[in-house]
Write a structure and sequence with these properties.
6 strands; three-stranded mixed sheet; single chain
Length: 153
Amino acid sequence: MNLQTWAEKWAHFPMILQTIPGFSGHAFSCVGVTGSTNDDLKNDWVNLMAPPRVHVAAHQTSGRGQYGRVWVDQPDESLLFSFSWQRPVHEPWVLPPQILAGLAVHKALEHFPVDATPPETLTEGGPDERFAPWLKWPNDVWAGRGKLAGILT
C-alpha cells in the first residue's frame, strides 16, 4: 500500500478524535515510516507548549517495548501509534495509566470476533490458538499465545 492510500484511511480520524472524552484538544498526525512514534512525541516535549497529539505510523524502524526490547513490525500490518495526554491536576487516578490503557485496548478488541477457547485448553500449534484477548499484567494485551500490544507509559 502506498503512503497516500494509507493516509487516506486515516482521513476521518481527526473528527472522531474530537468526540472522545479527554482527546478533544489533540492534534493528529500520521506518517508512512518513522523510527518510533514514541520518540516522535518525546521530541515534541522540547517545545513545552506543544499540543497533545495522536501520532500513527504505517511502519517503525526502531520500535521498542518494555525495557528497550525491540518491537518488530511488518509495514502496513500493525497498528502503530503513540499519544500524549495531560491529566488534569484535580482529576484523581483510580488505576495507573498503563492499566487504564490496557483495559481500553481490551475493551476495543471486544468488538472483533474471536474464538473463545480458554488458554488452558489450547494445544501447541493446534487450530484453537485464537481466543478472546486478555491482559498480561500490567501492560501487555495477548490473544492465544501471541502478544498483540505493549503499552508504555
